[in-house]
Structure formats: C-alpha cells, structure tokens
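Batch job 17 of 40 flagged for manual review because the log was empty.
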Amino acid sequence: MAGPADVGPQALCAREPRVPAERLVAEMVPPPRFDSVRFDTYNPDPGQPSQSEAVTVLSGFAAGLGGAHASGGGKRRWFAKKAPAATAPRGVYLDGGYGVGKTHLLASLWHATPAEPALKAFGTFVELTNLVGALGFQQTVQTLGGHRLLCIDEFELDDPGDTVLVSSLLSRLVEQGVALAATSNTLPGKLGEGRFAAADFLREIQGLSAQFRPLRIDGQDYRHRGLPQAPAPFSDEQVAKAAYATEGASLDDFPGLLEHLARVHPSRYGALTDGISAVCLTDVGPVPDQSTALRLVVLADRLYDREIPVLASGIPFDELFSEEMLNGGYRKKYFRAISRLTALARDAKPLVSQ
C-alpha cells in the first residue's frame, strides 16, 4: 500500500459527501471489517463459557430462519398481513461489555442466516435512525418489512426520542415476521462497570421485550488480550512524511477535523472516508466538549468498521476524553472509541517505517 504517492495526501476537511437514500439501504450489510467473520472464526475465551454458549444459540437461531418468511415466503410484500403470533422469541439480544465480540457474533448471525443479502439488513442504531429520516417511517417499514432478519448494533438507549421511534419501527417489523438481533449501549447514569445492559434494553423497548431472548456474553475487551500497548504518538514530521508516502492517505490537523465534523452529518462519516487507505492526524489534543466527543465516537466507529489505520501526533488516544466525560452517561461510548482508535493506531505503526 505504501510507496511514493503520485500526489499529496487528501484532506478529510476538504470533503463534503452527499449520500442518497438508496445508498443508505444498500449499505445495510456488515461493515468491511466483518465481511469474512463467521461463527467458526470467533475464538471463545475458555474461561468464559457464556461465549461458547452464545455461538451455539445463535447458530440455532440462524438455522431457524431458513423457512418461509412469515409474511410471504421470503418475497417482499409491501402490504403483507400481520404475521401470526410467534410461539417463541423472534429476537436475540447480545448482552456484554465492549470488546467481547458482540459485533463479530452479530455479523456472523447475518452471514449464517439462509437468505439472500437483499432480505437481510445490518446496521447501527444511528444508521437505522438515519434511514428513517431519509425515507420516512412508513417507507422504512415497507422497505424492511419483507426482510427475514434485521441486526442492530449498538442500540442507543441514551436518546429517549430515538429509542421510542426505533421501538415503534421494530414493533411494526415484528408484526410482518422480521426476526431481530441487537446489541446496545448503557443508559446515561448507568455507570457501574459499563457492561451489561439487558434490563435497561428490555425496559426501554417495553412491548417488544417478550420478543427478545437475552444472551449474556462475559469477557474482557479482546483487543487488549495479550496485545502490546498502543504505540506512542509520533511527531508531526513523521506523520506528514508517512502521509505523503502512503497512497490514498489523508492528512489533517486534528482541531480542524473536529470543526469539520460539526459541518457533516454523522450519517455521512462513512462516505467521508471513501477511498482513504490511512488517516493521518497531527496535533491530536483533548476533545473540548461532549457534542464534539460524540461526533468523534461515530467517526472512530466508521474507521474501525473499514479497518482504516490511524497515524497520529500529539497526545495518546487514551487521553482524548476528560475525566468528567469518562465518568458520565456516555462513558461506554468513549471507552469503545478509545479501544478502537488504539487498535487502529497499532495498525498504522508500520506506515512510519515504510
């Protein structure tokens, strides 16, 4: 990948992507990082039997979705009648801390479900709310109502309005026979260990709770199991040199990038990184406020999904967020972002030596 670039590096700050609604629908598949994951590529921790149990249960759940769609044999039926009442839960909820492999398992479920990709959807909670915003509620019901499975990663329990919106959407989809699978974040104020949120999730979705079987997945963040510490930040000169030597790399001043993110809707952050092979950042410093921090979390998720390495100068990524942020209601999101950016920093380290 690396080598003398024909032109200088790009700047994310110079990009203002426009994303049509049809792209939002077409991209509701597991992100590139999870293209090849399967149940047999998940490595359960021998000391955490709940991980092996989750694989067994989810494999059976996927196999059970191989029959005819409840509203029409797997074909799209925009005006299908309400499906018969289910005799067993039509959904699973993966309940565990960040980094225990929930997204790996959720993507594996999507891949294992015996249906063509057009009849399966996978996206984050934010991507699902963006879809509703782009299509409207009724059109989203029609678009997803013929699906066999909808997977929702990182269900956002910290936004009551969006939680009600998506819960209403899921209720309509269940009526049409769509199976559901989800993971979630913790609610504001639910600090504790920042881990298990099944009780919060089932309470917030209210009438849908009977449709979900919770699967608790214990374990430590796999990105830190036996792995070296994240590399120390490099100098501005090293980052710039690597950016110019790496084809497809971007180069931005971190404060400037944070300002640019405020002008781009988070639904477009994936498109913002289209064609980028590595993100190079200079002058990384503490994030100034919570709104900016939450936007950075979304960008970190999109970079991690796409396996785009991040090379940076300035402070280490574990110093991005203030103690107040790390002890607040969005604690879990910030720790997830730190974990993911740390992993991408490891991936970027070889760029400096090339």
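Reviewer: the log was empty due to a logging misconfiguration, but the result itself is present. The chain has 13 helices and eight strands. Unflagging and moving on to job 18.
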